[in-house]
């Protein structure tokens, strides 16, 4: 970018130039007058003539003054200061360079494609390079073609080519016979198939029911906002904790529904989880029913539960108790709550006992419901 022009500084410079030029002109005029004063009167008359006056101030005198000033020497131009050639001259120079070089059909080859020396020429000139060159380049330099093929052998005829080349090799014939025998046996067993058909899955083995029922129900009750994969990861952490934890110290008053000893429970975490859920699952639920005694008071009625309902109630109790813990991660809170259930220290046991106590007390209300 060109520098800006300062108008104030330029004004001072122009004023200095005009003053110096005017003083120079005045000194020249004084010198001329002094020389004219020393001349004779006749010479003054001649000088006052208009023609002489015109000649004194003509352009020829200026040209003579300019010729006396020495000319500046011309400096050599740099490589980037030369003028560019015309487009036609540049095209002619490129055509001269690329004349006779073809890279693809009739198209002229570019300098990039033609630069360098082919490897074949280097190997022909240098015998040591040919000696230590790869086998592919040595074969190509000798024969002109490669001695191997990189194409895949897709047909059996290509496999049988060594037998035709070496008819006396017994190992090749043995391998060929083994392949033919195995192919014939596969065709006899299953026409059109090379391998046997897979066995059909049993009716109990279904894709949607590939997990244990308790594990699947527990996982889906832990799920929040439809994030099943996150619930499955949490269930994996819980089962891993049950498997790696120490054997529980069983409480004699709150026994688990199993005949297995305590040290064998962590060996199978799925069975361990089933035992814990079934042990705290209530057998009944309490339903409040109005009008049985003839007034508006509600009467507790015990209602039996199915297996799935019992397990659901137990899992909900365990999850609500784990939510009140402060053990850090959600999966670890549930795992620690299950461990406390196994040792009889969880509040889920008290809930189960309370429900059973109310149900035993409300058995008499069943007769009132039967009468109505």
TrEMBL record:
Its main location: mitochondrion. The keyword Cell membrane does not apply. GO terms for cellular component: mitochondrion; ribonucleoprotein complex; ribosome. Residues 56-65 have a biased composition (Polar residues). Keywords: Mitochondrion, Ribonucleoprotein, Ribosomal protein. Component of the mitochondrial ribosome (mitoribosome), a dedicated translation machinery responsible for the synthesis of mitochondrial genome-encoded proteins, including at least some of the essential transmembrane subunits of the mitochondrial respiratory chain. The mitoribosomes are attached to the mitochondrial inner membrane and translation products are cotranslationally integrated into the membrane. This is Small ribosomal subunit protein uS7m. It comes from Talaromyces islandicus. The lineage of its organism: Eukaryota, Fungi, Dikarya, Ascomycota, Pezizomycotina.
């Amino acid at each position: 970018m060109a520098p800006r022009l300062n108008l104030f500084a330029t004004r001072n410079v122009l004023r200095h130039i005009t003053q110096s030029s005017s003083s120079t002109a005045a000194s020249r005029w004084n010198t001329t007058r002094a020389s004219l004063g020393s001349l004779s009167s006749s010479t003054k008359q001649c000088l006052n003539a208009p023609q002489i006056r015109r000649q004194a101030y003509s352009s020829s005198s200026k040209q003579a003054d300019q010729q006396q000033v020495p000319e500046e020497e011309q400096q050599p131009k740099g490589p980037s200061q030369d003028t560019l050639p015309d487009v036609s001259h540049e095209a002619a120079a490129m055509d001269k360079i690329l004349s006779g070089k073809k890279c693809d059909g009739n198209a002229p080859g570019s300098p990039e494609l033609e630069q360098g020396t082919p490897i074949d020429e280097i190997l022909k000139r240098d015998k040591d390079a040919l000696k230590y060159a790869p086998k592919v380049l040595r074969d190509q330099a000798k024969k002109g073609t490669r001695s191997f093929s990189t194409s895949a052998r897709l047909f059996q005829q290509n496999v049988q080519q060594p037998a035709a080349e070496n008819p006396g090799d017994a190992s090749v014939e043995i391998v060929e016979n083994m392949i033919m025998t195995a192919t014939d046996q596969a065709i006899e067993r299953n026409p059109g198939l090379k391998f046997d058909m897979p066995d059909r899955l049993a009716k109990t083995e279904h894709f949607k029911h590939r997990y244990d029922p308790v594990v699947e129900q527990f996982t889906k009750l832990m799920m929040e906002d439809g994030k099943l994969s996150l619930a499955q990861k949490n269930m994996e952490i819980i089962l891993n904790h049950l498997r790696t934890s120490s054997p529980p110290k069983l409480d004699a008053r709150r026994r688990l529904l199993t005949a297995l000893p305590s040290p064998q429970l962590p060996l199978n975490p799925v069975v361990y989880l089933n035992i814990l859920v079934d042990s705290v699952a209530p057998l009944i639920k309490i339903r409040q029913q109005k009008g049985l005694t003839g007034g508006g008071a509600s009467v507790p009625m015990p209602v039996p539960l199915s297996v799935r309902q019992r397990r659901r109630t137990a899992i909900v109790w365990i999850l609500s108790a784990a939510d009140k813990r402060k053990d850090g991660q959600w999966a670890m809170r549930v795992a620690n709550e299950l461990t406390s259930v196994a040792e009889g220290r969880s509040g889920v046991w008290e809930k189960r006992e309370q429900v059973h106590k109310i149900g035993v007390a409300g058995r008499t209300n069943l007769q009132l419901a039967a009468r109505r």
